[in-house]
Write a structure and sequence with these properties.
- It is a single chain.
- The chain is an all-beta fold and 625 residues long.
- It folds into four domains: 150 residues, Spermadhesin, CUB domain (Jelly Rolls, Sandwich); 141 residues, Spermadhesin, CUB domain (Jelly Rolls), CATH 2.60.120.290; 121 residues, Jelly Rolls; 161 residues, Jelly Rolls.
- It has a six-stranded mixed β-sheet, with no helix packed on it.
- The chain is globular, with a radius of gyration of 29 Å.
- The N terminus and C terminus are likely disordered.
């Protein structure tokens, strides 16, 4: 087999068959693509099934000093007999080598087996060496092995632009006053685009001038797959609105994503990257810019040979309408917008854009106070096509994505952005004498529209409900009674006194998703726990549910709401009561409920009458008449 196994490979690139690191290994060295963009590597006899009892074949890729190696699997079919790939057939990866030398003591990163869908298809080395070690077990199978491409890349393409802080492993500082630091640039997780190291903690300090703010764009984030709360992630990116991690948290990133924008409210921004998992991801690549407070939000895509950034926004023509508005929280934290000529009729054949730009943890919230759009159809219709309408857009994966359309005369529920930016667009095709349009208030809020509890600063969205403050109250999802925003995680922490528990009653519950409310079903969810960590006693809740109760086992209880960036729901509205552990809880019939109207927005909360029944512990010898 060794004679004709790789004859076709020899015609494509330079391969050296040499002595293996230890007896029984065959070593294949790939050091050039012969002027082509990519080279090719294959498993033995590919695309025919590989033979059993392949003890060890080393695919060794060796680049120049300032190069890294990218490999991409095009086909992958390695028989999987164990979930962890430790036995049977597997491909072992060595990604962090200064050269192509490995031995039995060299640490490896991971094992691959299964099909193409089971593995990361693109891998990078962190240095000029990369080794794949292939083994097959004793059993014969029809597995065809693997085929892929490789190329050599300049490692300097992934150089962090700031100044490394002396005496640290991966801390950097960026100052607009430092002539060594560019006005804008790039920064990366350690070893990017290869996997980051285990057990590291890196910080990135950004300091602008007093008339500047910091703009960050996370182009790619790849930490861990899944939808586990950032509260329980071993690898996490934390962004703080100031110079240290004691400042208010803007955003926590702990999964995978693209095109995530961050804007500081002042001249300082602090980013902390912590990695403690056993299986590191690829990490992140990001761009920074020191932006004048007088500028609009900026895109990092630039003309070649041009130092001037382009405006980042929705796809609009260069000639803007006279009714277009850009509303920044730097100018005002709240205000009012209306259609042209309001309360008179708005003009026909008009397009108006209202662009909102917040900073820090601010979200844009729109509350409509009057809404009367011309409709050509009888009655109310949810279909706003071919009608005068207002559309709402938020930024998703680097583009403005429509989240809803509003038409007719029904007052829309409040709208909230998924980040610091939101766009409303008026499309007037008709317009008649009695179509007065809309009037709405806008505000840049940091509390996500949650007005109960005490907000704490160490998390982007977290609220505390203490028995010492109030033994009974309510809480709800962000922006309730409007739909909750996408890509949002909020925590509700309940703290009772000793020998107390908390009882939660969910009066309304509509969270987008289907059981088991996880990544596979692309579901948003609400999670319950007696601890800060995950509690196996409680299952996740999602979907449209009838009223239900949840009760804690101890004085502390956590409720976590998490939404993804796909769809949204109406959210939830719930009440809580702290009880002594010997107490039980019943709720009076709904006729005993009283409706409380709260604030000018018209948000409705249901405060149920509660009857607490004291159940004494009864000694066996006691008798009752």
């Amino acid at each position: 087999m060794e004679v004709n196994l790789f004859l076709f490979v020899l015609e494509l690139y330079f391969v050296i068959v040499g002595h293996a690191v230890h007896p029984g290994c065959e070593c294949l060295i790939f050091s050039t693509t012969h002027g082509k963009e990519k080279g090719i590597f294959n498993s033995p006899d590919f695309p025919k099934p590989y033979s059993p009892n392949v003890d060890c074949i080393l695919y060794t890729f060796v680049g120049k000093r300032n190069e890294i190696i990218q490999i991409e699997f095009v086909d992958f079919d390695v028989r999987k007999t164990h979930l962890d790939c430790l036995k049977g057939d597997y491909l072992k990866l060595f990604l962090h080598l200064d050269d192509g030398q490995v031995n039995e003591y060299t640490p490896w990163e991971t094992l691959l087996c299964g099909g193409l869908a089971d593995i990361p298809t693109v891998l990078y080395s962190s240095g000029p060496g990369l080794v794949l070690e292939f083994h097959s077990g004793m059993r014969t199978s029809n597995a065809t092995g693997f085929s892929g491409t490789f190329r050599f890349m300049d490692r300097r393409l992934f150089k962090t632009g700031g100044q490394k802080i002396s005496g640290t492993a991966c801390d950097y500082q960026f100052s607009s006053a430092d002539y060594m630091v560019a006005y804008y640039g790039n920064f990366y997780s350690p070893r990017y685009p290869s996997s980051y190291p285990k057990n590291i903690k890196c910080s990135y300090h950004f300091k602008a001038s007093n008339r500047e703010r910091v703009h960050i764009l996370f182009e790619e984030i790849s930490l861990q797959k899944g939808d586990i709360s950032c509260l329980n992630r071993a690898d996490i990116i934390r962004i703080y609105d100031g110079s240290t991690n004691s400042e208010p948290a803007i955003k926590f990133l702990c999964n995978e994503g693209t095109e995530m924008e961050i804007f500081s409210t002042g001249p300082n921004l602090f980013i902390e990257f912590v990695a403690n998992s056993d299986w590191p991801g690829q990490g992140f690549k990001a761009k920074y810019q020191f932006q004048s407070v007088d500028d609009n939000f900026i895109d990092y895509e630039r003309q070649e040979h041009s130092g001037k950034p382009k405006i980042l926004g929705a796809n609009v023509s260069e000639t803007r309408s006279s009714c277009d508005l850009v509303l920044s929280s730097d100018v005002a934290k709240n205000g009012t917008i209306t259609t042209p000529n309001y309360p008179g009729p708005y003009p026909p054949r008009t397009t108006c854009r209202y662009e909102f730009e917040g900073r820090g943890r601010e979200r844009v919230r729109i509350v409509f106070q009057d809404f009367y759009m011309h409709t050509s159809r009888r009655g109310e219709s949810k279909d706003c096509d071919s009608q005068d309408s207002v559309m709402a857009f938020v930024l998703v994966d680097g583009r403005m994505d429509k989240i809803d359309s509003y038409c007719g005369t029904t007052l829309p529920k409040p709208v909230m952005s998924n980040g610091p930016r939101l766009l409303l667009e008026l499309q007037s095709m008709f317009g008649v004498q009695y179509s007065r349009g809309f009037r709405a208030s806008y505000s840049f809020v940091e509390n996500y529209g949650i007005i109960s509890g005490s907000q704490i600063q160490k998390y982007p969205c977290a609220f505390v409900y203490s028995s010492n403050e109030s033994r009974i109250g309510y809480f709800h999802s962000p922006n309730y009674p409007g739909p909750y925003p996408r890509d949002t995680e909020c925590h509700y922490f309940f703290y009772g006194n000793e020998n107390e528990k908390v009882h939660l009653h969910f009066h309304f519950f509509d969270i987008e998703g289907v059981k088991p409310c996880n990544t596979i079903s692309a579901s948003d969810y609400v999670e319950f726990s007696n601890f800060m960590s995950i509690d196996s006693r409680y299952t996740r809740h999602c979907g449209h549910l009838k009223e239900f109760h949840i009760e804690s086992d101890r004085k502390f209880f956590r409720v976590t709401f998490r939404s993804n960036d796909r769809l949204d729901g109406a959210g939830f509205n719930a009440s809580y009561i702290f009880l002594d552990k010997i107490q039980s809880y019943t709720v009076a019939e709904s006729k005993a409920a009283r409706i409380l109207r709260r604030d000018s927005v018209g948000v409705t909360y249901v405060a149920l009458s509660v009857i607490v029944i004291f159940s004494r512990l009864i000694e066996p010898q006691w008798c009752w008449d």
